[in-house]
Amino acid sequence: MINPGIEDVIADAKRSHHGNDPAADQTMVINMGPQHPSTHGVLRLVLEIDGESVVSLAPDIGYLHTGIEKTCEAKFYQQVVPLTDRIDYLCPMTNNLAYCLAVEKLLGLEIPERAQYLRVLLNELTRIQSHLVWLGTHAMDIGALTVFLYCFREREDILRIFENVAGQRMMTSYFRIGGLSLEPPLDFYKQVQDFLNIMPDRIQQYENLLTGNPIWMNRLKGVGYLSPADAIALGVTGPPLRASGVDWDLRRDMPYSGYEKFQFKVPVSDVGDVWARYVVRMEEMHESVKIAQQALDGLPEGRIVADAPKIILPDREKMKTEMESLIHHFKIVTEGFAVPAGEVYQAVESPRGEMGYYVVSDGTAKPYRVHMRNPSFATLQALETMCKGRLLADVVAVIGSIDIVLGEIDR
Amino acid sequence: MYDPASALSGTEAVFAAHPDNTAVKALATLATDAKYDRAELTITVARESIIAACQAVQQAGYNFLEDVTAVDWYPSEPRFQITYHILSHSLKQRIRLVVRLDSEDPSIDSIVTVWPSANFYEREIFDLFGVHIGGHPNLRRIMMPEDWNGHPLRKDYPVEGYR
To answer: β-pairing, B107-109 with A44-50?
Structure first.
């Protein structure tokens, strides 16, 4: 038997609808995924359909489960940072930020303003990059292939910025506990400014291709409705929550990493359908450009790491010339740094919603427990509510609109 | 740097320091222990009263369940700590509810009747920690295959798995 779970899932889908009466057996159970192009990874859905309409839907996840939470418990605090990149591979910087902020809260570290601004700048670029992947693949699922190519053109610009600043395009691991790993190279600022100059026009280009397009409108409007009460009850966060009319954004309402110093609007729509989620995310990209511009303009001078020699690796030069720095370097690398016992929960607004890191310390140099609260995991629970009673073809549009990443669902 | 002396622990100390906190008021009778550390409020309740506690904080304005997870404190007892993070959109505050379970009988009532979003999280705890969730509508493994032996996030489960 390839997967013993399937019998249960099918039996469940049937039981929930019509009991054991064979005369009422009018529906068909079909399997969608895990190797389906529009499930954005390895999501498998077991759908019960009556003709073309969806009667019930059960997600089957776990295909990408790699046990990252367990692995974290065997690493030093600083060694966990590269693992966090691999959870949500479309927004590595946001994962880095959430984890670093959680550990910094445990340690009680003050982060210099320059590092905070650079973190905000890179997080907003990450948000644009993630939304570009969403827009491209969502449009491709619906049948508009051109948009995908344009989106990846600008995404490439952002990945070049990441490569320049961190040495890696996707798995950046650029943030460190206590600050950043390196001072950005000198041409970084011009590169970011060039990108921010062209981006508003480019977003307009995507909108020209899609917003007035009758096929796009017919496929999106009125599809996948989610009421505000359902959205809260089912744990939906981020753009889908705001598209359902709940005005909540962690960047504005519970600011972290200096977000309270930036002026931006939080786009909200009370329509609650797939179209509203499209509109909200497009607006968010405009706002992200504005935040990144403010961070670049107001970037203060100063250090990029906190003043904590027992936690942050010394400069290479100092390590070679000063005895004390060499000792600190040796101690951090070989035995890590002890973190005072306690537990914290740090949430940040990722492109997909609320990403929370729950870190428990027992006073040693390795985390006792790291748990990630990932937005896609909760949002996936709302899929059945959005798809029930709708056409099978709409399921593809709805999956695209909630923008899930299976890496962070399965972890 | 963090100062351990800044933490408050014990119901009386925390409730005296934060008498106006909405969650403190709502859980005044149900709390068995409390902690205020690094600007985060943690309230411990008994296993039997978890549903009542969730309903009490929900009525007090804590409308959004963010996360449910567990910590395994093996080999000390009580072994399992089930942690609920609950957010209030109107108050812009978060609380942490904690329930401690002995290894003798690791089971707790499901809170899906209060917040349906707990469904997947509780399945995850069942799957990875082996804590039984009573009254859950669909208590099956979620991450691991159905025929998997053991519960990977328990501390007595080796990181490399059984070979």
So the answer is: unpaired
- Number of domains within chain A: 2
Domain boundary among A42, A60, A78: A60
Q: What is the DSSP letter of A294?
A: H
Q: Of A66, A232, A241, A410, which to mutate for an interface test with B (greatest number of B Cβ within 10 Å)?
A: A232
Tell me if A296 is assigned to some domain: yes
Residue B69 touches partner A, C-beta closer than 8 Å: yes
Give per-residue pLDDT as tens, A12-61.
555 555 556 665 667 888 888 787 777 777 888 888 888 888 888 888 88
Instruction: Give the pLDDT of residue A236.
Output: 92
**pTM, to two decimals:** 0.91
Contacts (Cβ under 8 Å, ≥6 apart) of A25: A14, A18
Decide which of 3.30.460.80, 2.60.40.3250, 3.20.20.140, 3.30.230.10 is the CATH code for B4-105: 3.30.460.80
Q: How confident is the model over B44-61, as pLDDT tens digits?
A: 999 999 999 999 999 998
Q: What pLDDT sits at residue B98?
A: 93
Same-domain check for residues A173 and A288: yes
B123 HSE (CA, 13 A, CB side): 21
Same-domain check for residues A36 and A118: no
Hey, what amino acid is at A145? L
In the A/B pair of chains, how many CB contacts fall below 8 A? 112
Chain A environment of B115 (Cβ under 8 Å): 233, 235
A298/chain B closest Cα distance in angstroms:
27
Q: Does A150 touch chain B (CB under 8 A)?
A: no
A150 & A271 share domain: yes
Q: What are phi and psi of A279, to 5 degrees?
A: -65, -45
How far apart, in whole angstroms, are the C-alpha atoms of residue A23 and residue A21? 6
B-chain residue closest to A248, CA distance: B89
**pLDDT < 50: residue spans in chain A:** 1-4
In a domain, A191, yes or no: yes
